[in-house]
Amino acid sequence: MLDKASKYKVSPPLNDDTFNQPDADLNAFVNGKLAMARFGIWNFAKFSEAKFNWDIALEPGNTQKAHHFFADGLVAAKTTKNADAAWRFLKFFTSAPEAVSKRIEAGWSIPAVTDPAVLDAYYKQKPPESKQVVTDALDSLVLPPVGPKPEKWGEFTAAVGEELDKAKLGRSSAQEALDAAQKRVEALMK
User: What distance separates the 2 farthest-apart alpha carbons in the chain?
Assistant: First the structure.
């Protein structure tokens, strides 16, 4: 990834503050300054601001395809005194036709239903033209890692992110960053 920016010049410079701001890559894409990028489906509404035709595709993979998977989850406390009301709300919010159609209108995410008519309504909503790709990615989904200390997940990701940022900004090599991240994560595991 570092070579794509510094050696091959096919990605924006990693030390360019323009691309280190929140949503910088998203805004650059919408403004026609970035040709390709990886984004989540929740950005489709923002893409509608683009003054050009855009579409989506599965990443090709090298030896094996792997796509991130995120799910919106709703829960109720096991000890709630209103278990029946909580269940009715969860059921309504996730599968009632009124709620499902609102989720499709908003373009936020795919409703977790198997009704072909509902899914067809989602696929027909354009752009992108190739919306079926969204569910095709489920064939090669990869869940985020979950370790033995899930309560420290934020610390794990911060440690790795901070070390990789050093490599991105040229303060260390990729190997040095990965080695340092490994040491920090191993220390957190103790």
Answer: 60
